[in-house]
Amino acid sequence: MWFNLADEPGQLLRILQPIAEFGGNIREISHLREEKKGNFLPVVVTFDVKDLQQFLKIKEAIEAAGVQITSTEPHPEVCRKIVIMVGHVFATNIKDTIDRVLERGVRVKRVVARIKSAEEASTVKFILEADAKDKLERTIRLLKKIADEKRLFIVWS
Amino acid sequence: MDLILIGFGNVGRALAEVLVEREAELKGIGANFNVTGIFRSKGGFISPDGLNLKDVLERGERHPSWVPEASALEGISELPCDVVVEMTVTNIETGEPGLSFIKKALEEGKDVVTSNKGPLVVSMRELLNMAEKKGCFLLYEATVGAAIPVFAVAREALKHNEVECIEGILNGTTNYILSRMSEDKVSFDDALREAQEMGYAEADPTYDVEGIDAACKLVILANGIMGMNKRISDVEREGVRGVTPEMIELAEEEGYLVKHISYLDRERMEVGPRLVPKNSPLSIGGTFNVITIKADLAGPITLIGKGAGPRETASAVLSDLLTIVKERSGR
Q1: To the nearest whole angstrom, how far is the Cα of B235 from the nearest Cα of chain A?
Q2: What is the rounded distance in angstroms from the CA atom of residue A140 to the CA atom of residue A136?
Q3: Which of A41, A52, B251, B291 has its CA 20 to 30 A from that of B304?
């Protein structure tokens, strides 16, 4: 289910509470930050329901909570790659590394870092998601090039 | 069928042993191999009527057929010979000495079986063209994945398919190192040292850990199965020295393993560390090799096997010899 949520604390609960209340099983929540318009943030919540009746109850409860549902289409297939980088990932500006490869329809999710000390190499893992396989492939190629430039060792799935 | 064996190291000796062990079975299927010459880098065993391989293996240079000044190039021209089996040491810079032996054999109209990557990495297209022009076989099953019959599967079972891409683990040493790092949490250096102690890795491991060996095999797969004309410089290559225990740990949290993967399609040829799902056929551990061929009709077909070892390599050489026996006898 796709929503347009005000980018303010507590907004997500207005969606999650009705889903939980009517027994929906939440699988994934994605904030599409790069597609933010004004103060409104597109959010996709993927959840399992037993039947159509349960789905309609949830939908009704969310609407009653005053949340704008933009689409109830199934989430388009998301292409995903896990990326792990080793090296001076922070000293070489990880934000710049990621910003340089992102294009519309490609996003970074769940960044995990292992840092020993400022002098030692750190290891960073993140998930790259895209709405098309070729976009993801292009992003990985560019990321590899930038990693080589910054002398980072990179692997991906 | 008269054979000349060139190169009598681990693989050459293993082939001779297998020919002795399986003599009766081979004769039973119409493969009467008669070895008229065995050449080392210096000297050789010569008998135009055929050598007794068991005696040669047992007695070595004390065997009466030993000729210290014998030359393989002369042997190819002068001895009775249908197939030259070339098993000399690999040199990926010049392809020599194997390259000269294979060229000479093809010029003389002999079929060739080789276990040596060097000549193919340097001049594969030229050699295949020479073989075609002369109506000779040039077979090289042993050069990739040792006993894994990847070329036979592509040539025979997938003859009617278009191969779209090939990927796999083509080097057992790096697979051993990465498997040890993953399974037993040892460091790269410790895993490498262990591989060297167990004889899986050379004293200078560059060839394996930098992906050069895998890149050579990828070139042979590209040219041999996909009809391309590639060289090792066409392969984008990265070794496994940068893989760390933290990287492996973070991958495992997602259900992935770090593996040294070789990949080839019409656009790309690359060797490098990649994350593969734990339940993928590419997640095989130890010193095993794995090769997946993706064909347009058949879809993906995966072969797993021992990618090194004298008897495994000899098995592949013998398989090529039997292909030639079958084709030459019109069966």
Answers
A1: 15
A2: 6
A3: B251
